[in-house]
Specification:
Largest sheet: 7 strands, mixed
CATH architecture of the largest domain: 2-Layer Sandwich
Number of domains: 3
Helix content: 10-25%
Radius of gyration: 25 Å
Strand content: 15-25%
CATH class of the largest domain: Alpha Beta
Distance between the termini: 68 Å
CATH topology of the largest domain: Chloramphenicol Acetyltransferase
């Protein structure tokens, strides 16, 4: 007798409500085993591989590649007739939607590590207990098409602020977000006076698909759908720019001694399999500056009206990946030795560029470095990563005339740009942090003296 089980799209962490189906690894008729990867999905955070919770035969793929699916929507049907159930694995219908991976984030040194529990790979408990906000039942399309005047339009505060700034009436918009919420994209399209597409979006059983093609434009134009990581990045940058009052300071630095130190470190046996670059010394300098000025490693809690100072550093590194800008972070970077930091930075960048960064890799950052120098850029005004108080841009290192002991010389010079949240960091503190980083890059021995 055939026994079909439907695998529902799980919440892969941090309360995400939807994901795009990137690629199926199986097709109808294929045999699957417990923990075999069956599909890749792209959330607002990263690309995630989902494993099968059962042994059996693929009966049907319930959604196609490229479709956007709500959490809890069945995406594949598996015939488990005669297949044994993995020990300790409850029927999927009997458990709540759960994250696809258990990733342990090292806590600060003064906290005991969480007790680990043995679970089926891909499904199980989180390393730390959290309380998740209950989701409201999704409204049918007809209920969200035209909000009644007495009903408050669903929209986040930054979206309402943007609509107010642009003179857009939210009540006149049809929301494209979860539960019919109005998004920034909706507001910006209204401000441009176009939806950007003809037709509408069809929502059926939690799956959203555009019903008609893009509106024809002038010759030579191309329209690229904004979704997944790129959509999240765009929304995060707009939110950060309109929420935190940014200030950026610049400092030109003679990094000749740092470049010499990089060459010497590359020859050490501890770094034989590591790509050592000036970014390693920039990272160590910033970590040392954070230790000297802890307030720079903090966040503004608007709801509680508090400044939260982090006494651990999860160092974010901005990475230009194929799917968009990613900012994975090295956990507890301040506790690592220089060789450990070098390996952590290299592994993080390689994972992100390969599209394998997990939500855990991207969550929990406390301060960020963006290396714009690799693109041949001297400097800029970087936007804060949401939830952080500072970001350091490291410009290209190039030969330039420089005065040394009263004499003109050719030196290796770069520009450092520090953007910070002016609600937390005033000009004196921001200048002190930037000056410290610059001093350590001018003379790397200071890193040893100040550590």
């Amino acid at each position: 007798m055939t026994e079909l089980k439907e695998f529902k799209l799980p919440d892969v962490g941090e309360g995400l409500t939807e994901a795009d189906i990137v690629a199926w690894h199986v097709k109808p008729g294929d045999q699957v085993e417990v923990n075999q990867i069956i599909v890749e999905i792209e959330t607002a955070k990263a690309v995630v591989e989902l494993p099968s919770p059962w042994d059996g035969t693929v009966a049907r793929l319930l959604v196609q590649e490229g479709q956007t699916v709500d959490v809890g929507t069945p995406i594949i049907a598996v015939d488990v007739s005669g297949a044994p159930t993995a020990p300790g694995t409850p029927d999927y219908a009997e458990r709540s939607v759960v994250p696809p991976a258990v990733t342990t984030i090292s806590p600060p040194a003064d906290q005991a590590p969480p007790e680990r529990q043995a679970v089926l790979v891909g499904y199980g408990v989180k390393a730390a207990s959290t309380t998740r906000r209950a989701r409201k039942p999704a409204l049918p399309p007809a209920a969200v098409a035209e909000p009644a005047p007495a009903v408050r339009v669903l929209a986040k505060p930054p979206v309402r602020r943007l609509a107010k700034d642009l003179g857009i009436n939210l009540a006149e918009l049809t929301g494209s977000g979860p539960e019919g919420a109005v998004t920034r994209d909706d507001v910006q399209r209204a401000a441009r006076g176009t939806t950007g597409r003809s037709g509408s979006e069809v929502v059926e059983n939690g799956v959203r698909t555009a019903s008609l093609a893009a509106v024809p434009g002038p010759a030579g134009e191309e329209r690229i759908p904004v979704r997944g990581v790129r959509k999240h990045m765009a929304a995060a940058m707009v939110s950060s720019a309109f929420t935190a009052p940014h200030v950026t300071e610049f400092l030109q630095v003679d990094v000749t001694e740092t470049m010499a130190a990089v060459r010497r470190v590359r020859d050490l046996p501890e770094y034989a399999e590591v790509r050592v670059s000036p970014l390693l010394f920039v990272a160590r300098a910033l970590l040392t500056a954070v230790r000297r000025h802890p307030m720079v490693n903090s966040l503004w809690d608007e709801g509680a009206q508090e400044i939260v100072v982090k006494h651990y550093v999860n160092l974010g590194i901005a990475v230009a990946a194929e799917r968009g800008l990613l900012v994975p972070n090295v956990k507890n970077a301040g506790e690592l030795s220089l060789p450990e930091l070098a390996r952590g930075l290299q592994a993080l960048a390689e994972t992100a560029r390969a599209g394998k960064a997990t939500p855990a890799d991207l969550a929990g950052g406390t301060i960020t470095i963006t290396n714009v120098g690799v693109f041949g850029v001297d400097g800029g005004t970087p936007i804060l990563t949401p939830g952080e108080a500072a970001i350091l841009a490291f410009g290209q290192v190039k030969d330039a005339p420089w005065v040394v002991d009263g004499q003109l010389a050719v030196r290796s010079v770069c520009t450092l740009s520090l953007s910070f949240d002016h609600r937390i960091i005033d000009g004196q503190l921001g200048s002190a942090v930037l000056s410290d980083v610059g001093s350590m890059l001018e003379d790397p021995v200071r890193m040893l003296a100040w550590t």
